[in-house]
Fold this sequence. Notes:
By secondary structure, the protein is an all-alpha fold. The chain has one domain (5-109). 75% of the residues lie in helices and 0% in strands. The longest helix has 24 residues, at 87-110.
Amino acid sequence: MPPTVEDRLLDIKEAIAEIEDILKDISFDRFNSERRIRRLVERYLEIACEAALKLPDHIKAQAPNIDWRKMTNFANLLRHAYHSTRVDVVWDIVQNHLPPLKSFVDNRIRAGGK
C-alpha cells in the first residue's frame, strides 16, 4: 500500500526535525567543512523533498509561498547528481525553504492532513 498524504506529511516533518537537530548550533563554515554532517543533512533533505514531490497538487496549491519546483529539482539533484551538490545551495534550502515547508506541514497535520 503506497504512503498516504498523512504519511508523507509526517515524513517531511520528521526529516525537518532531524535536520534541525543536526544543525543546532552549527555555522555555515562548520557545515561546509564537515562532510559527514553535510551528507546526513542531504539525506534527510532528500527524504523531505521526495515526500513533498509526492504530495497531491491540490495540497501543494494551498501553499503558493513554497517553491515546489525548487524542492522537486533539488530532490532530483540529490538522487541523480549528488556529486555536483553545492554546499551553499543545500544551506540555502535548509535556511530559507524548509521553514515555510515545516510551517505548512505542521498546519496540514493539525488539520488532519487533507
